[in-house]
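Sample 3 of the quickstart, ligand 5-O-phosphono-beta-D-ribofuranosylamine:
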Amino acid sequence: MYRIAVFVSGRGSNLKAIIESQKERLNNFEIIAVVGNKSDCGALDIARQNGIETFVVAETEKDGIVSFIKLAELLEVKNVNLIVLAGFIKKIPDSFIDTFENRIINIHPALLPSFGGKGMYGMNVHRAVFESSAKVSGATVHFVDKIYDNGKIIAQRVVNIDKVNTPEEIAALVLQEEHKLLPFVISKLSENKVNLINNRVIIKD
Ligand code: GRF
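Result:
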Protein backbone atom coordinates (compact mmCIF):
# COMPACT_ATOMS: atom_id res chain seq x y z
CA MET A 1 0.00 0.00 0.00
CA TYR A 2 1.26 3.48 -0.97
CA ARG A 3 1.59 5.58 2.17
CA ILE A 4 0.88 9.31 2.16
CA ALA A 5 1.09 12.14 4.70
CA VAL A 6 -1.07 15.21 4.09
CA PHE A 7 0.05 18.65 5.32
CA VAL A 8 -2.71 21.19 6.03
CA SER A 9 -3.33 24.65 7.45
CA GLY A 10 -6.99 25.45 6.91
CA ARG A 11 -10.49 24.06 6.54
CA GLY A 12 -9.33 20.81 4.89
CA SER A 13 -11.67 20.44 1.95
CA ASN A 14 -8.86 18.94 -0.15
CA LEU A 15 -8.01 16.51 2.65
CA LYS A 16 -11.70 15.52 2.71
CA ALA A 17 -11.66 14.95 -1.05
CA ILE A 18 -8.61 12.67 -0.70
CA ILE A 19 -10.24 10.70 2.13
CA GLU A 20 -13.46 10.32 0.12
CA SER A 21 -11.65 9.23 -3.01
CA GLN A 22 -9.71 6.66 -0.99
CA LYS A 23 -12.96 5.26 0.43
CA GLU A 24 -15.05 5.40 -2.74
CA ARG A 25 -12.57 4.14 -5.29
CA LEU A 26 -10.69 1.85 -2.94
CA ASN A 27 -7.54 3.50 -4.11
CA ASN A 28 -4.17 1.98 -3.74
CA PHE A 29 -3.05 4.48 -1.09
CA GLU A 30 -3.61 5.17 2.59
CA ILE A 31 -3.26 8.38 4.60
CA ILE A 32 -1.01 7.48 7.47
CA ALA A 33 -0.69 10.97 8.99
CA VAL A 34 -2.03 14.50 8.74
CA VAL A 35 0.28 17.33 9.74
CA GLY A 36 -0.83 20.87 10.58
CA ASN A 37 1.05 24.02 11.51
CA LYS A 38 -1.46 24.80 14.27
CA SER A 39 -3.59 22.47 16.37
CA ASP A 40 -6.90 24.28 15.89
CA CYS A 41 -7.65 23.98 12.20
CA GLY A 42 -10.64 22.35 10.52
CA ALA A 43 -8.43 19.99 8.56
CA LEU A 44 -6.95 18.42 11.71
CA ASP A 45 -10.49 17.94 13.04
CA ILE A 46 -11.38 16.08 9.82
CA ALA A 47 -8.32 13.86 10.28
CA ARG A 48 -9.20 13.10 13.90
CA GLN A 49 -12.82 12.30 12.97
CA ASN A 50 -11.47 9.81 10.44
CA GLY A 51 -9.14 8.18 12.93
CA ILE A 52 -5.98 9.40 11.20
CA GLU A 53 -2.91 10.17 13.31
CA THR A 54 -2.18 13.91 13.51
CA PHE A 55 0.91 16.00 14.23
CA VAL A 56 1.50 19.71 14.70
CA VAL A 57 4.81 20.96 13.32
CA ALA A 58 6.88 24.11 13.93
CA GLU A 59 10.50 25.20 13.57
CA THR A 60 11.28 24.25 17.15
CA GLU A 61 9.97 21.49 19.35
CA LYS A 62 7.53 22.42 22.17
CA ASP A 63 4.88 20.63 24.20
CA GLY A 64 2.77 18.66 21.74
CA ILE A 65 4.56 20.21 18.75
CA VAL A 66 7.24 18.47 16.71
CA SER A 67 10.08 20.15 14.82
CA PHE A 68 10.53 19.57 11.08
CA ILE A 69 13.68 17.55 11.90
CA LYS A 70 11.78 15.27 14.26
CA LEU A 71 8.84 15.05 11.84
CA ALA A 72 11.15 13.93 9.03
CA GLU A 73 12.43 11.14 11.26
CA LEU A 74 8.91 10.08 12.25
CA LEU A 75 7.69 10.01 8.65
CA GLU A 76 10.74 8.06 7.49
CA VAL A 77 10.14 5.48 10.23
CA LYS A 78 6.55 5.22 9.01
CA ASN A 79 7.83 4.55 5.46
CA VAL A 80 5.99 7.48 3.90
CA ASN A 81 6.02 7.33 0.10
CA LEU A 82 4.54 10.76 -0.57
CA ILE A 83 3.92 14.05 1.21
CA VAL A 84 0.94 16.03 -0.08
CA LEU A 85 0.74 19.75 0.68
CA ALA A 86 -3.00 20.45 0.64
CA GLY A 87 -3.30 24.09 1.60
CA PHE A 88 -0.20 24.07 3.84
CA ILE A 89 0.97 27.67 4.10
CA LYS A 90 4.15 27.34 6.15
CA LYS A 91 7.54 27.36 4.39
CA ILE A 92 9.05 23.87 4.39
CA PRO A 93 12.74 23.92 5.45
CA ASP A 94 15.29 23.00 2.76
CA SER A 95 16.62 20.07 4.83
CA PHE A 96 13.13 18.54 4.92
CA ILE A 97 12.82 18.94 1.14
CA ASP A 98 16.21 17.24 0.72
CA THR A 99 15.07 14.30 2.84
CA PHE A 100 11.95 13.80 0.75
CA GLU A 101 13.31 14.84 -2.65
CA ASN A 102 10.75 14.18 -5.43
CA ARG A 103 8.36 12.85 -2.81
CA ILE A 104 6.52 16.11 -2.01
CA ILE A 105 3.67 17.50 -4.12
CA ASN A 106 1.63 20.68 -3.71
CA ILE A 107 -1.72 21.87 -5.00
CA HIS A 108 -1.80 25.48 -6.15
CA PRO A 109 -5.11 27.21 -6.95
CA ALA A 110 -4.02 28.79 -10.26
CA LEU A 111 -2.35 27.84 -13.51
CA LEU A 112 1.39 27.88 -12.77
CA PRO A 113 3.83 29.25 -13.76
CA SER A 114 1.52 32.30 -13.53
CA PHE A 115 0.18 33.57 -10.22
CA GLY A 116 2.62 31.68 -8.02
CA GLY A 117 5.49 32.54 -5.69
CA LYS A 118 5.87 33.96 -2.21
CA GLY A 119 2.68 35.45 -0.80
CA MET A 120 0.57 33.84 -3.51
CA TYR A 121 -1.74 31.67 -1.47
CA GLY A 122 -5.46 31.54 -0.67
CA MET A 123 -7.52 34.51 -1.83
CA ASN A 124 -4.38 36.49 -2.79
CA VAL A 125 -4.10 34.20 -5.81
CA HIS A 126 -7.71 34.57 -6.89
CA ARG A 127 -7.64 38.37 -6.43
CA ALA A 128 -4.53 38.58 -8.61
CA VAL A 129 -6.15 36.41 -11.28
CA PHE A 130 -9.34 38.51 -11.14
CA GLU A 131 -7.42 41.78 -11.44
CA SER A 132 -5.34 40.45 -14.32
CA SER A 133 -8.57 40.05 -16.35
CA ALA A 134 -7.47 36.56 -17.41
CA LYS A 135 -10.23 34.47 -18.99
CA VAL A 136 -9.15 31.14 -17.53
CA SER A 137 -7.76 29.97 -14.24
CA GLY A 138 -7.41 26.53 -12.74
CA ALA A 139 -5.54 24.22 -10.42
CA THR A 140 -1.98 22.90 -10.62
CA VAL A 141 -0.36 19.97 -8.87
CA HIS A 142 3.43 20.13 -8.94
CA PHE A 143 6.49 18.64 -7.29
CA VAL A 144 7.93 20.78 -4.51
CA ASP A 145 11.48 22.07 -4.68
CA LYS A 146 13.19 24.77 -2.64
CA ILE A 147 11.61 27.67 -4.54
CA TYR A 148 7.93 28.54 -4.01
CA ASP A 149 5.63 27.03 -6.68
CA ASN A 150 8.62 26.25 -8.90
CA GLY A 151 8.82 22.44 -9.13
CA LYS A 152 7.85 20.42 -12.19
CA ILE A 153 4.15 20.58 -13.07
CA ILE A 154 2.45 17.18 -12.81
CA ALA A 155 -1.13 18.00 -13.84
CA GLN A 156 -3.45 20.95 -14.35
CA ARG A 157 -7.18 21.57 -14.77
CA VAL A 158 -8.58 24.69 -16.39
CA VAL A 159 -11.76 26.62 -15.49
CA ASN A 160 -13.43 29.27 -17.59
CA ILE A 161 -13.76 32.55 -15.66
CA ASP A 162 -15.07 34.64 -18.51
CA LYS A 163 -18.29 35.50 -16.71
CA VAL A 164 -17.28 35.77 -13.04
CA ASN A 165 -17.94 38.94 -11.05
CA THR A 166 -15.73 38.36 -7.99
CA PRO A 167 -12.48 36.64 -6.93
CA GLU A 168 -14.62 34.47 -4.61
CA GLU A 169 -16.41 33.02 -7.64
CA ILE A 170 -13.04 32.09 -9.14
CA ALA A 171 -12.02 30.44 -5.85
CA ALA A 172 -15.20 28.32 -5.82
CA LEU A 173 -14.78 27.19 -9.44
CA VAL A 174 -11.10 26.33 -8.95
CA LEU A 175 -11.75 24.50 -5.67
CA GLN A 176 -14.16 22.08 -7.41
CA GLU A 177 -11.35 21.14 -9.80
CA GLU A 178 -8.78 20.88 -6.98
CA HIS A 179 -10.97 18.25 -5.33
CA LYS A 180 -10.81 16.07 -8.46
CA LEU A 181 -7.23 16.81 -9.49
CA LEU A 182 -5.40 16.07 -6.24
CA PRO A 183 -6.87 12.57 -5.66
CA PHE A 184 -6.27 11.82 -9.35
CA VAL A 185 -2.56 12.68 -9.11
CA ILE A 186 -2.09 10.80 -5.83
CA SER A 187 -3.74 7.77 -7.32
CA LYS A 188 -1.50 7.91 -10.45
CA LEU A 189 1.63 8.29 -8.30
CA SER A 190 0.53 5.35 -6.15
CA GLU A 191 0.19 3.25 -9.32
CA ASN A 192 3.68 4.32 -10.44
CA LYS A 193 2.21 5.93 -13.56
CA VAL A 194 3.99 9.28 -13.27
CA ASN A 195 7.30 9.55 -15.15
CA LEU A 196 9.80 12.20 -16.14
CA ILE A 197 10.32 12.10 -19.91
CA ASN A 198 12.17 14.85 -21.85
CA ASN A 199 12.21 16.83 -18.62
CA ARG A 200 8.39 16.90 -18.54
CA VAL A 201 6.11 14.96 -16.22
CA ILE A 202 4.06 12.43 -18.15
CA ILE A 203 1.10 10.57 -16.64
CA LYS A 204 0.25 7.19 -18.12
CA ASP A 205 -3.41 6.13 -18.58
C1 GRF B 1 -6.81 25.43 -1.58
O1 GRF B 1 -7.33 26.35 -2.48
C2 GRF B 1 -5.40 25.12 -1.94
O2 GRF B 1 -5.15 25.04 -3.29
C3 GRF B 1 -4.71 26.32 -1.37
O3 GRF B 1 -5.33 26.49 -0.12
C4 GRF B 1 -6.66 26.02 -0.20
C5 GRF B 1 -6.86 25.01 0.88
O4 GRF B 1 -8.18 24.66 1.02
N1 GRF B 1 -3.30 26.23 -1.38
P1 GRF B 1 -8.61 23.45 1.94
O5 GRF B 1 -7.99 23.67 3.32
O6 GRF B 1 -8.14 22.19 1.30
O7 GRF B 1 -10.10 23.54 2.00
